[in-house]
Write a structure and sequence with these properties.
The chain is α/β, with parallel strands linked by helices. The chain folds into 2 domains: 6-122, 3-Layer(aba) Sandwich (Rossmann fold), CATH 3.40.50; 134-236, Orthogonal Bundle (Arc Repressor Mutant, subunit A). It has helices spanning 14-25, 37-46, 63-70, 87-95, 108-122, 161-172, 180-187, 197-210; strands at 6-10, 30-34, 51-55, 78-82, 100-103, 134-137, 140-143, 148-150, 156-157, 177-178, 220-223, 227-230, 234-236. The longest helix is centred in the middle third of the chain and has 15 residues, at 108-122. Residues 132-232 form the OmpR/PhoB-type domain.
Length: 237
Amino acid sequence: MNTGPGVLLVEDDKEIGALISRYFSSNDIDVSHVCDGAQMDAALSSRSFDLIILDLNLPGEDGLSICRRLRVDRNVPIIMVTARAEDVDKILGLEMGADDYLTKPFNPRELLARVRSILRRTSSAEPVPSLRQIYRFSGWTLDLAARDLSAPDGAKVALTGAEFDLLHALCEHPNRVLSRDQLIGLTHGPSEGPFERSIDTLISRLRQKIETEAKNPRLIQTVRSEGYLFSTQVTRA
């Protein structure tokens, strides 16, 4: 029995689904393959998964709608895959809450590498006691060990894996202008990150969650032609 990370594959092409399932299973990934949103909902009601691979073009409810719906109450990482290559589709997928985006056709090894990269970043490994694990800024608290964010009133604020990693990077470099390329490197690594505009999308999503006025941001400021500035004092404990 495979005891590796649990991945839910939502893919209506049975041949592609079988190929990915065989390849992932041979690499110690526990894969459950379903073909549409209804089957996905049934699978999620019966067990939890560490990551979802979601096809964009599905019968019935499409991947964008499913991703938006999942993000209402779930923080599970999502990799969206599709035959569409247009930037607008990638942007939409990321805006709906996807953590990464891969265009068909792709090598299963690349998909596996992206899955493992996200799982490494979102794993709940025991913290090393000597490392500072808590960041505090403007009343907010970012807990690296628990991978959660608490608002000034104590309420938990749900973040996707990509949003969490970006906020972590900003907390590590407060009051310093970071370019999009630098943010991609800090959050995904030089060879794993999506294209540059995904950072703008993630910044927009973060602003919606931590700014009092997302359209007039005080914490995450845009520095024209240069990048972004996390304008606040950050303490670590």
